[in-house]
Amino acid sequence: MIDPASLTADLIRCASVTPTEGGALVLLEKLLSKNGFSCTRVDRGGVSNLFARWGTGKTFGFNGHTDVVPVGDIDAWSVDPFSAEIIDGWMYGRGATDMKSGVAAFAAAAIDFVLQTPPDGSVVLAITGDEEGPAKDGTLALLDWMQSKGEKMNVCLVGEPTNPNEMGDMMKIGRRGSLNAHFTVIGQQGHSAYPHRANNPLPAMTRLMDTLASSTLDQGTEHFDPSTIAIVTIDTGNPATNIIPSQSHATVNIRFNDIHSSASLTKWLEVHTQKIGAKFGVEIEMRVHISGESFFTPPGELSNLVARAIQVETNRVPEMSTSGGTSDARFVKHHCPVVEFGLVGKTMHQVDERVEVAQIHQLKSIYSRILRDYFT
User: Fold this and answer.
1) Which residue among the candidates 10, 21, 67, 328 is catalytic per the annotation?
2) Which domains does the chain have, with CATH numbers?
């Protein structure tokens, strides 16, 4: 029997701050290979990724990541962030919640499952080192490689933390899309005592930001909350009070549901940008970066399978939610049906990130039940 807590600790001790591999995937590859999995490193663009398969035929897949965000102010931590120190039943360390414990729990469940009750089918782990970074050479690289090699997952579980408060609260059956729009308003610099000789970009920028932030995109849908627009920065960089600046910059983030697409929202932004630019007589440049489109796996065989396992092991009926930020499920959904379930995410990315040791074992039990039920 593989101890998922011990494996979590070993992974935390690998300082795999994205995109550094830090030894985490080397450790996993060694463990999985030792226990009968065929492993392939799928590195691309300086990013390390691991594909592991046991068996053939009908395939249950798992997607996760071993890279972590930077520790931040190390002096603010109570312990070494890569020590995996256990205090009062809690294991501390960067990646403890997001998501080395999830990877460890599934790896432990998968190894025990294929050794004790070999299924008529196969189990795949697709583990990336680029979820917390640009995400261009992580799960996408794994999926590209799988397509080139004829590898296929019939369904996939992503092990991101999904529970807001208690184990069993929530699973994810989709995610909102995310779009960042970067604006530059270009005017003409001048003396603030003679504003008629300048063309101040700030009135146009403030009007544009107020217009966008005050807009209601929708009222939500059956499975999604209303889309949101947030101003995340406005920058002019003008320390002088006697100068009207020539430019101002701002960024908004839109989290959108399945009513919209990145293309439809880009057109909507362009209409407001052109209208306000013309009104104030300024040029407004817009650059759009799309993190991902909204997606949704309708409740059905896969989500019900996962929900039943969660309910049996936690005595809670999980909410099937589409809330939260983006995850690599946005890439997997093009390959096969995908849902997400992992730990309680309260401390992810925080100083003193930590996981309750008992929950790691509970998560392994849930993943083990999901595997048993899927193949029986």
Assistant:
1) 67
2) 4-175+294-375 (3.40.630.10), 177-292 (3.30.70.360)
